[in-house]
């Protein structure tokens, strides 16, 4: 029986890994999967020793607050893996957690594969040394990343971006609005995505929901909630952030993930919208793949911001801007990220349709470059790694 342990650190990793694992199971039906995952990996039969939610942190301050818990998760993960004896480990993103685990398992003779290269081209370039110690095979989701590993001894393969394969090149806005129950009354739709982690919501909510409330005068405003837990978190946070409840009373809607749909609710909301207000992260790339103009905002604790700024290699934070090598969409960071600035920037997109049309062409080219059939590429590589590992036993 072939065994693979996988670790994903957030919802997007769970989505990416599940698609690849479904394909891998077709190539290796006898494969056993275990590790840390979310509902999608659990649904395809992975034995989840812990939930991805246990690792979902953003920035130094939030990580420090959960350090004891994260260390306990790592300890028991390594204990379970030692008893389970996999021959291949797949770490999906979450480099601060996964690289340490990979280094330990590699020392025990486990072949280590890491999906989604840490952004050493953007910040913390010194992590290349830790990657050399931890990773046998790096699976890169951006085409320029493989060059970074030349001469390092780390095998690197460009597989494309898995999310680019899941998103249609021409999303159906009308169908998405119907699915969300948005009235067909000619008013534009604005998607508001302040982040999915508790730390992100705590720091972004004042600016994002303040802007959302103001934008209800011009548009339908919708907030995707990936789960009931996310809705519960918003409800609890609204008691400490009155702006959230005020936004809801003004007409801002948050919409939960339908139980009968595998399509992430964030994707339906992005397909439906005219403009997205998005926290920095994977969601900015998703908005670009949906060909939607966006405004990027982000706040973190001041200490985290100072540390991150000091260790940054590039000045931009939004993936669309980084990949297109210019600021094609506005970014508002820290004190610049306030309700008025976000509202004005969203309205500027709504008032300049010709500017939005030009952006769509840029995003279409980006989509084509990232759409490479990633799930099949990842599955083929993992199948090869498993073959190699088990032949060598």
Keyphrases for this structure?
2 domains; 13 strands; Rossmann fold; six-stranded parallel sheet; seven-stranded parallel sheet; 18 helices; 393 residues; alpha/beta; 16% strand
In short:
By secondary structure, this protein is α/β, with parallel strands linked by helices. The chain has helices at 11-27, 39-43, 59-65, 67-84, 95-107, 127-134, 162-166, 173-180, 198-215, 228-238, 242-250, 265-272, 282-289, 302-310, 319-324, 339-350, 353-370, 374-391; strands spanning 3-8, 32-37, 47-51, 88-92, 111-115, 137-140, 155-158, 189-193, 220-225, 253-256, 275-279, 294-298, 331-333. Strand 11, helix 13 (282-289) and strand 12 form a beta-alpha-beta unit.
The side-by-side strand order for the widest beta sheet comes to 3-2-1-4-5-6-7
* Total E-strand runs: 13
Mean pLDDT figure: 91
What's the Cα radius of gyration?
Answer: 21 Å
Provide the fold topology:
Blueprint: E1 3-8, H1 11-27, E2 32-37, H2 39-43, E3 47-51, H3 59-65, H4 67-84, E4 88-92, H5 95-107, E5 111-115, H6 127-134, E6 137-140, E7 155-158, H7 162-166, H8 173-180, E8 189-193, H9 198-215, E9 220-225, H10 228-238, H11 242-250, E10 253-256, H12 265-272, E11 275-279, H13 282-289, E12 294-298, H14 302-310, H15 319-324, E13 331-333, H16 339-350, H17 353-370, H18 374-391
Helix pairs in contact: 1-18, 5-6, 8-12, 9-11, 9-16, 10-11
């Amino acid at each position: 029986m072939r065994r693979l342990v996988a670790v994903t650190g957030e919802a997007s990793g769970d989505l990416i890994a599940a698609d690849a694992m479904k394909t891998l199971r077709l190539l290796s039906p006898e494969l056993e999967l275990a590790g840390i995952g979310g509902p999608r990996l659990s649904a395809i039969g992975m034995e989840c020793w812990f939930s991805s939610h246990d690792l979902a942190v953003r920035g130094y301050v939030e990580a420090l607050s959960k350090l004891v818990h994260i260390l306990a998760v790592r300890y028991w993960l390594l204990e379970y893996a030692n008893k389970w004896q996999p021959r291949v480990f797949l770490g999906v993103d979450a480099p601060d957690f996964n690289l340490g685990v990979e280094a330990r398992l590699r020392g025990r003779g486990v072949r280590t594969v890491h999906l989604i290269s840490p952004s050493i081209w953007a910040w913390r370039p010194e992590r290349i040394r830790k990657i050399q110690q931890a990773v046998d095979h790096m699976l890169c989701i951006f085409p320029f990343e493989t060059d970074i590993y030349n001469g390092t001894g780390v095998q690197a393969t460009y597989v494309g971006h898995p999310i680019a394969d899941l998103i249609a090149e021409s999303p159906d806005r009308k169908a998405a609005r119907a699915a969300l129950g948005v009235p067909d009354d000619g008013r534009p739709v604005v998607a508001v995505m302040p982040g999915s982690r508790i730390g992100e919501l705590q720091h972004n909510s004042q600016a994002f929901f303040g802007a959302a409330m103001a934008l209800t005068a011009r548009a339908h405003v919708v907030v995707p909630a990936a789960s009931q837990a996310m809705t519960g978190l918003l409800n609890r946070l609204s008691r400490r952030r009155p702006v959230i409840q005020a936004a809801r009373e003004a007409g801002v809607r948050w919409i939960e993930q339908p139980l009968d749909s595998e399509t992430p609710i964030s994707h339906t909301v992005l397909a439906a919208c005219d403009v997205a207000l998005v926290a920095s992260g994977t969601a900015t790339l998703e908005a670009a793949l949906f060909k939607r103009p966006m405004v990027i905002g982000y706040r973190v604790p001041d200490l985290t911001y100072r540390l991150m700024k000091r260790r940054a290699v590039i000045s931009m934070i939004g993936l669309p801007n980084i990949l297109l090598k210019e600021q094609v969409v506005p970014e508002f960071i820290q004190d610049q990220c306030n309700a008025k600035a976000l509202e004005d920037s969203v309205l500027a997109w709504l008032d300049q349709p010709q500017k939005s049309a030009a952006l769509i062409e840029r995003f279409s080219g980006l989509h084509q470059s990232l759409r490479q059939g990633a799930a099949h590429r990842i599955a083929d590589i993992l199948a090869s790694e498993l073959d190699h590992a088990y032949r060598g036993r």
